[in-house]
Specification:
This protein has 97 residues and is of the alpha+beta class. The chain has one domain: Alpha-Beta Plaits (2-Layer Sandwich), CATH 3.30.70. The chain has 2 helices and 4 strands; from the N terminus they run βαββαβ.
Length: 97
């Protein structure tokens, strides 16, 4: 079994409150779950208004497939979230067990 993990850090320059940040994060995580069938959660920077760190994970039989899926997710975030600037994306694909 192959596990792919991605940590994405976003800057939300126009955001002025934690409520606004939650709306952006909730919308993004739900879209990623629905479109790519992956597990998604906010994993850091919970108290910062203009920074969001999101973790995405997927399981696969093939390392190349997991890598491609996570690369596609990062590109999707960059392309569709015009209200968020992608600061960093770290991808790790490894064999489990």
């Amino acid at each position: 079994m192959i596990v792919g993990v991605c940590r994405v850090t976003l800057r939300l320059p126009e955001n002025g409150s934690l409520k606004g940040k939650r709306q952006v994060v909730r919308s993004l995580t739900q879209r990623l779950r629905n479109k790519f069938n992956v597990a998604v959660a906010e994993v850091g920077d919970n108290d910062r208004w203009q920074i969001a760190t999101i973790g995405v994970t997927c399981l696969s039989n093939d390392a190349r497939h997991a890598q491609e899926q996570l690369d596609t997710i990062v590109a999707f975030i960059e392309r569709t979230r015009l209200d968020a600037e992608l600061i960093d994306a770290e991808i790790d694909v490894s064999r489990a067990f």
